[in-house]
Each structure stands twice: as structure tokens, then as C-alpha cells.
Amino acid sequence: MNHELILTETRGRVGLITLNRPKALNALNDQVMDEISAALDAFEADEGIGAIVITGSDRAFAAGADIGAMADYSYMDAYKGDYITRNWERVKTCRKPIIAAVAGFALGGGCELAMTCDIIIAADSARFGQPEVKLGTLPGAGGTQRLPRAVGKAKAMDLCLTARFMDAAEAEKAGLVSRVVPADKLLEEALTAAETIASFSLPVVMMIKESVNRAFESSLGEGLLFERRVFHSSFALNDQKEGMAAFVEKRKPSFRHD
Ligand code: CAA
Asked: What ipTM describes this predicted complex?
């Protein structure tokens, strides 16, 4: 794949996307998001990929949407062009699990991109924030919606209204990130987690992602019903037969991803 502002590679069954706009601290413009979308399309279409990692640099996962690019937008430019949300939806609609491996700044759209992923693994250097209020605007790619769901109203209001940054330890305590690791181990840890996920049955992994996400879109009763139906459907998979047979026979399962 040929990209200008991101790098992509395959490591075993893991697709890796590295944001590569270091001079702008990986600020997210339309081109970056289009390239991420294209990379996700390719990884989704590839049967050999079971999980995806998105990462940035040591200094910044991403310092937000590109302020220079949007500074002079009129309302009509933003609305008609569906600025920000148009090509950000692709991350949300990806059916394979995505891990955000975050070091340094994850601010504004950078924090929002990380939150759109399924798991955030943070380096101890990570800083999260929604400082848009300082720019005379507000989070526009999920910050006011995903952050309170992740960390609760009090901390979400605090971050969005005061523009302060949250360090990795606070983010882990608040439930935004799943683990904090030393900065020099970040990529290794994220890739290992992704490789573990990718070693399991791909349709089952997709069902789990779909079911956990349903918890944020439905009542408990609806969500439990959805889960039960999906659980029942897993009994149609060869991988369910293989997984349970392997347990009974005390051997390692060999999943075929069907
Ligand atoms: N957009 C465009 N360029 C950015 C940027 C952004 N969001 N963040 C940083 N940069 C650029 C800087 O302009 C600078 O470029 P030059 O060297 O050409 O001047 C370069 O990256 C390095 O940045 P700094 O010199 O500012 O580095 P620093 O270490 O002093 O500060 C920082 C780092 C605290 C992250 C600071 O750059 C900063 O506050 N950035 C903006 C953070 C922000 O407000 N993000 C929200 C954006 S709006 C948004 O995301 C809307 C939405 O919800 C979708």
C-alpha cells in the first residue's frame, strides 16, 4: 500500500498502521483519515489479518485534528464537506478489533481516534485531553460522547471544560486505557495483544466486538438478548467445534476462522 502520511505493514496476522506526520505531531487532516480508511479497507479484506494496531510516534499519537487546515472553514464548508466525521466513521465501522497504542499526546481528535478503537494501550508517557475549548470550539469526533462513557461524567466534563491533560496513570485509573506500559515496550505489548486476539477464531472475535459495542447502544435487556442470539449462532462455527473438542482432548485448538 502506498501512503504519504501513514505507514502500513503486516506482522503475522496483525495489520499495523503508524501515523507518520511527525512535524505536525500527527495532526489529523482529511488525507490522514482517508489513508487510515484505505488501510482499514485493505486489512478488513485480507483474510490473513485478525487484528489491527494503530500507533503514532514517541512524542505524539496525534495532537488532534489539523488546526491549520480547519481554521478558516465556514459553517457551510464544515457542514457540506461533513468535515471531520465523513472519513472518521470508517474506524468505527471496522469489524476487526483495533488496538490504539498511544505514546505522548493524544489530544482532541487524537484522543477521539484512540477512543474509537476497541482497546487503548498507553505508554507511561501518554497524555490524553480534549482541549478544543481553548480553540473556541468543542470536540467534534466523539469526545463529548465517548469520553463520558469511558470515564464518567465528572472527569469528562473536567477534561472538556478545563482543557487539562490526563496522564497515563490517571487514564488507566479512570478506565480509559486498558494497560499502561513503559514507553519502550509499547509497540511490543500492543502487537503481542493483537497477535493473541488474531490467534483466536476471527468470526468469534468479530462477534465479541459486535456484542460489547452493543452494550453502548442498547438497554441491558436488549443487549443480553443480542448476546444470547450471537452466542447461539457461534454453535454454527467449525471453530466452536474445534475449540471445545481441543479442550476436551487436552490439546491446543487449531482455528480455521470459519
Ligand atoms: N494541528 C496542526 N498542527 C499541530 C497540531 C494540530 N492539532 N498540534 C501540533 N501541531 C504542530 C504545531 O503547530 C507545530 O508546528 P510548527 O513546528 O510548524 O510550528 C508542531 O506541531 C509542534 O507543536 P508545538 O511546537 O506546539 O509543540 P509543543 O511541544 O510546544 O506543544 C502540544 C505540543 C501541547 C500538543 C501543542 O502542539 C498543542 O496544544 N497542540 C494542539 C492540541 C489541540 O488543541 N488539539 C485539538 C485540535 S481540534 C480537534 O481535534 C477537533 C476535534 O475534536 C476533531
From this structure: 0.98
